[in-house]
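RidA family protein
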Amino acid sequence: MSDAEKRLSDLGLALPEAAAPVANYVPYVTTGNLVFVSGQISLGPDGLVTGRLGESMNVEQGQAAARLCALNLMAQLKAALDGDLSRLVRVVKLGGFVCATPEFEAIPKVINGASDLMVEVFGDAGRHARSAVSCPALPLGAAVEIDGIFEIA
């Protein structure tokens, strides 16, 4: 068990199985010392978290959905690393997409749900650059989608 997985366990969390793509793309691409993970939606053990921030969801619900995205990103990363998360050098960048009403402006606070978890799990290596944008709809009605770039050894 890697240090990251121990931290997840200490938080009462476990990584899900890496999800299969739902369209014509691959879940991750490794090139050189970087892994690019395709957007992961807010899918958890109770199913897909759907909704629109500022309409049917509040910031805390959005943060929980973003946290699910982060767990799914980590699951894809683990698959890309043949099960060895200890090869992670750094979380380089996260790109966050939030299904929200035009008036909802707390997009960065929602994506903090994922950013905070990356730091909790990977420590300083989890600190990353980031973008956070809103959109009127996401695939399958997801509330949040996040992609990531990771440096590996």
